[in-house]
Amino acid sequence: MKKWVKTGAFFLLTCLLIIPLAACGKEEMQKVRVAEVTRSIFYAPQYVALEKGFFKEEGLDVDLKTTAGGDKTMTALLSNGADVALVGSETSIYVAAQGSKDPVINFAQLTQTDGTFLVSRKKIENFDWNMLKGTTFLGQRKGGMPQMVGEFVLKKHGIDPHGDLKLIQNIDYANVSTAFASGTGDFVQLFEPTASVFEKEGKGHIVASFGTESGHVPYTTFMTKQSYMEKNKETVEKFTRAVKKAQDWVQKQSAEETAKVIQPFFEDTDLETIETVIDRYKSQGSFATDPILDQKEWDNLQDIMDEAGELPGRIDYNKLVNTEFAEKVSK
Fold it and tell me: In terms of CATH, what superfamily is 27-112+217-330?
């Protein structure tokens, strides 16, 4: 009898010790809800951070959701539907211009160039931007970064977007590629992997890169509300460190290896296409090599917005950009 009592007591004591430890283990994982503006190979380092467990290594349980469109992504962040948003930095400027008392702060840059390409319906051996004059150009939605960068690049090459060609920009983002495939336009501005798929299927031919032409710009950045950052500094730092680990990994690995890692996020895209897209973005320097959003990039962003007539007012770099965490994890 005494033996059974001792055994039972030992078992009970063991459970009392193990259960709190297990509970503590769960409590250490900090949940972070991330809203991404779209699902895109352009954001490869983010998916690498998830698949390779870099967020988990930092004690973070990242819940990623796609909220189609910059307005919906920002709404999710502002309404506390998300803790962190992955979206274009111009959205933080729009929010600040509306007089928000809790500004949205850019803290970790993911992509540093535009991610669109100029696709021609016909194959062109020696492309020149002047070839767009007198043609029908199927652009992106007015007010968005793709459209602003598109017009910026056209003007850079001496082309008046509203005078030298027929500019169509009233088609929803999701339907632009379909419209071109069905015969609308001589040229179109497309994201990957659609641009590469069209080229592979003979529906179009990539003739130029808007990312290469527009220079470095904080095209897609992780951001959060100032109030969240102040209350969760350790979490933001851990998140940024995981992003930096992923950025380093992508730079060191081949496009093929990166494609294999992120393929679960793109089940409808074949591995060869994913690899082609990653190689193209990597070769033109679209993936930021560190999470630091610098002053020059911020100024270039506002210049592009201003040129497009979409800048509500110049916003000081230090008001909406915090590089404290990015600089710390990049040392």
Answer: Periplasmic binding protein-like II (3.40.190.10)
Give residues with Cβ within 8 angstroms of 135, minimum separation 6. Answer: 165, 166, 186, 187
In angstroms, rounded to a whole number, what is the distance separating the alpha carbons of residues 326 and 109? 9
Q: What angle is formed at CA 219 by the lines to CA 214 and CA 225, rounded to 5 degrees?
A: 150
CA-closest candidate to residue 225, choices 39, 69, 78: 78
C-alpha 243/C-alpha 109 separation (Å) is: 9
pLDDT for 15 equals: 44
Q: Name the band, by pLDDT with cuts 50, 70 and 90, for residue 169.
A: confident
User: pLDDT by residue (tens digit) across 85-131?
Assistant: 999 999 999 999 999 899 999 999 999 999 999 999 999 999 999 99
Angle, helices 44-51/233-252, rounded to nearest 10 degrees: 100
Sign, Cα dihedral of 108, 112, 114, 117: negative
- Reading the block at residue 121, the tokens are 């319906």
pTM, rounded to two decimals: 0.88
Strand pairing category for 187-191 and 136-138: parallel
Q: What is the CATH T-level fold of the domain 116-214, as seen in this structure? A: D-Maltodextrin-Binding Protein; domain 2 (3.40.190)
